[in-house]
Specification:
The structure holds two protein chains of two kinds.
Chain A lengths: L8 E6 H11 L4 E4 L6 H13 L3 E4 L3 H13 L4 E5 L1 H6 L1 H10 L3 E7 L16 H6 L8 E3 L4 H18 L2 E7 H5 L1 E6 L28 E3 L14 H16 L2 H4 L2 E4 L6 E5 L4 H12 L7 H13 L1 H6 L7 E6 L1 E3 L3 H7 L5 E6 L5 H9 L5 E6 L8 H15 L1
Parallel strand pairs in A: 2-3, 2-4, 4-5, 5-7, 6-7, 11-12, 11-14, 14-15
Antiparallel strand pairs in A: 1-8, 6-13, 10-12
Helix pairs in contact in A: 1-2, 1-7, 3-5, 11-16
Chain B lengths: L2 H6 L15 H15 L5 E5 L14 E4 L5 H11 L4 E7 H7 L1 H10 L4 E6 L34 H8 L3 E6 L3 H13 L4 E6 L7 H5 L4 H11 E3 L11 E8 L6 H11 L5
Parallel strand pairs in B: 1-2, 1-3, 3-4, 4-6, 5-6, 7-8
Antiparallel strand pairs in B: 5-8
Classes of the chains: A alpha/beta, B alpha/beta.
């Protein structure tokens, strides 16, 4: 892997490779990690890339140590990252809390696999969606980005570094095995971005890197702006928690990214994130009769004829289905406003996800108040939803509604 | 207040969390004396974990990272690799370093990475109120060994020596001058330095572990129950050897080793 290319370039890469390239472009120069399927390609690429680019790499004794080491390195003034999957991500929760309370900008990539425990090392899932938000003990807010393509794996890795520095917080890139191992075209930027954020007013912890003569105290107990402990003082401690949460919730407009597709006239929406947004988009295309290059629509029609008979299939008028896609890129903090706005004309929102239906609860909380019916379409086991499964569910729900 | 103490200690953070008679103050002073003599205050960061002794650096007017339980060495390694020219000193207790942090200690020793770990061994979990630690003597009654500890205590220094630390010394709080010199040497030594300090905890360990509550008497016991060992000296059974236990200047340090490998591959740093 060449370290830094001179000009913009198009390549076909695996998601995990694109992530490494994104980190390199974002100025990441320290990587500590521990091999784990299906994220291993990231540590493999970063081992060579970091050292060739004048940065640093260490293979730690476990994921606990990896997360600690990147925090240590960041206080040494070097942008840093680690990557893991479910079991390793669980081990990192302790340090994610530490990074949240000390307001340390770090990036952690979780290439999700099926759980619980050792679970399904080689198959995909979205089961860590809550762990990404609530994994560490105590109260904190965190930023979590979910890529749906190799290009997004690259772009969101860069975005993760930008957001981490801007809000001085750990940022989680919540990918999954599908995206991590998929090969796609990706446009890579030349050179390195020099992300530099000055002192932030909304950050309540000491911010100066070590060895600047600032005598910074980094303290895991709740602390004041000089790092002095305040954990024994209820009022100050309450304010502290409020502060580290509001620095994120107050800037939700800057952080949130929600994309819509075919939503202009839609009264039914499929809301998806991560890899499931891909079959969801294809399902919208099928429903809308939008032809794609792979001949899926005629094929679908033939299948319909086989399944329902010619008469029934002809009577299924897809053109009346006003279906659109709401794709959530920044899954946490939950983008309430953007989702409400996107779904404001919808009576029905279907939420397909590769877990027992976790994110749909948040969607229901968000949209239930405006009378929108939220339907969870959960799927565990490691296979993505197929476009037809999602389309069938849309048809099923529409019939029920009628 | 002593001039050196005034120079290094945050007055606004006083009083310390330490109980009267605690050994942590002695280690604290030995450390700042070593920093001052070496003139490395602004090129040194202190990292600590959780426990009484991990509060030692939190009063320093220096760059300090007070981290999570057992993880100080892992944080320190990241910091050291990011800033290879700086000195990193870790303060840790016997529980922090040998129990929950044992894996990080093993691997840092094996790497021979250039950080200095000062392990304050008071043979008890003090902050949580007197429970058995990995260094608690067999038979000692604590709040989690009410019938007497069944385990054989772990020997931190011997462990560190065996697994690859290239500088290992053990002193006690009754040897503050030697301790200060060891910290100086440990920081100057290029490689993993492990300095164990036997320390008194008169409050939580006193009666049951040391059979003595008076800190001065515990320190006198430290003198009686230890002997200063020199290379080639015979072992004295029943006593703990203290002094410089290992110094291997030929062992190549981790970051140097990494750079050597890179250089062989045409990558100059």
């Amino acid at each position: 892997m060449e370290s830094l290319q001179k000009k913009e370039k198009t390549a076909v890469l695996q998601g995990n490779e694109a992530c490494s390239q994104g980190a390199l472009y974002a100025g990441c120069r320290f990587f500590a990690g521990y091999p784990i399927t299906p994220s291993t390609e990231i540590i493999e690429m970063m081992s060579g890339a970091m050292q060739a680019a004048g940065g640093h790499f260490i293979q730690m004794e476990d994921e606990i140590g990896s997360a600690c080491a990147i925090i240590g390195a960041r206080w040494g003034g070097v942008k840093s990252m680690t990557a893991t999957s479910g079991p390793g991500y669980t081990l990192m929760q302790e340090s994610i809390g530490y990074a949240a309370v000390t307001e340390t900008p770090i990036v952690i990539v979780d290439v999700q696999r099926g759980g619980p425990s050792t679970g399904q090392p080689t198959l995909s899932s979205q089961q860590d969606i809550y762990q990404a938000r609530y994994g560490s003990h105590g109260d904190y807010e965190i930023i979590v980005l979910a890529p749906s393509s190799v290009q997004e794996m690259y772009d969101f890795t860069i975005k993760a570094f930008e957001l981490a520095e801007r809000f001085r917080t750990p940022v989680i890139l919540l990918s999954d095995e599908e995206i991590g191992h998929m090969r796609e075209k990706v446009v890579l930027q030349p050179g390195t971005e020099n992300i530099h954020e000055g002192k932030k007013k909304y950050v309540v912890s000491p911010q100066a890197d070590f060895f600047q003569g600032a005598w910074t105290t980094v303290e895991g107990q709740l602390h004041d702006d000089e790092g002095k402990r305040i954990g024994h003082l209820p009022q100050k401690s309450g304010d502290f928690i409020e502060n580290i949460c509001s620095k994120i919730t107050d800037h939700i407009d800057e952080i949130s990214s929600v994309r819509t597709y075919q939503m202009e006239d839609a009264d039914i929406a499929v809301l998806a994130y991560g890899s499931v947004a891909r079959p969801a988009m294809n399902a919208i295309n099928l429903a809308r009769g939008i032809k794609d290059d792979r001949g899926a629509t005629p094929f679908r029609f033939l299948k319909e004829i086989k399944k329902r008979g010619v008469g029934e299939a002809l009577r299924t008028d897809y053109s009346k289905l006003k279906v659109g896609l709401i794709k959530v890129n920044s899954v946490w903090p939950f983008p309430d406003e953007q989702i409400r706005e996107a779904a404001k004309n919808c009576s029905l929102v279907i939420v397909p996800e590769m877990n027992i239906g976790k994110y749909s609860r948040e969607v229901e909380r968000c949209l239930g108040g405006q009378g929108t019916k939220v339907v969870s379409m959960s799927k565990c086991g490691g296979d993505l939803h197929t476009p037809n499964e999602i389309l069938d569910r849309i048809l099923e729900e529409v019939k029920v509604d009628e | 207040m002593n001039d050196l103490y005034a120079k290094y200690i945050k007055k606004e953070a006083l009083p310390t969390l330490f109980c009267p008679g605690c050994g942590n103050g002695i280690v604290q002073y030995a450390a700042i004396e070593a920093f001052e003599k070496l003139g490395i205050r602004n090129d040194t960061a202190c990292v600590s974990g959780i426990g009484c002794s991990s509060w030692i650096p939190c009063y320093f007017k220096m760059d300090v990272m007070h981290t999570t339980h057992g993880r100080a060495i892992a944080f320190a390694e990241g910091l050291k690799i990011a800033q290879p020219d700086k000195n990193i000193v870790v303060f840790s207790g016997d529980g922090d370093c040998l129990a929950i942090g044992g894996n990080h200690l093993l691997h840092a020793c094996a790497r021979n990475i250039d950080i200095t770990v000062i392990m304050i061994n008071n043979m008890i979990y003090g902050m949580t109120g007197g429970q058995k630690s990995p260094a608690t003597p067999t038979g000692a009654k604590t709040h989690t060994s009410p019938y007497g500890a069944a385990d054989v205590p772990m020997k931190g220094s011997e462990l560190a020596m065996t697994i690859g630390a290239s500088y290992v010394a053990r002193w006690t709080t009754a040897h503050p001058v030697q301790l200060e010199k060891a910290i100086e040497e440990g920081i100057k030594h290029k490689g993993f330095s492990f300095i164990e300090v036997l320390s008194q905890c008169p409050v939580q360990a006193g009666k049951n572990v040391f059979k003595e509550k008076d800190p001065v008497k515990i320190m006198e016991m430290f003198k009686e129950q230890t002997y200063v060992w020199h290379e080639g000296d015979p072992e004295q059974p029943g006593k703990t050897k203290i002094g410089l236990l290992k110094k291997d200047d030929d062992a190549i340090e981790y970051i140097d080793r990494v750079n050597n490998v890179l250089r062989e591959n045409g990558i100059e740093r």
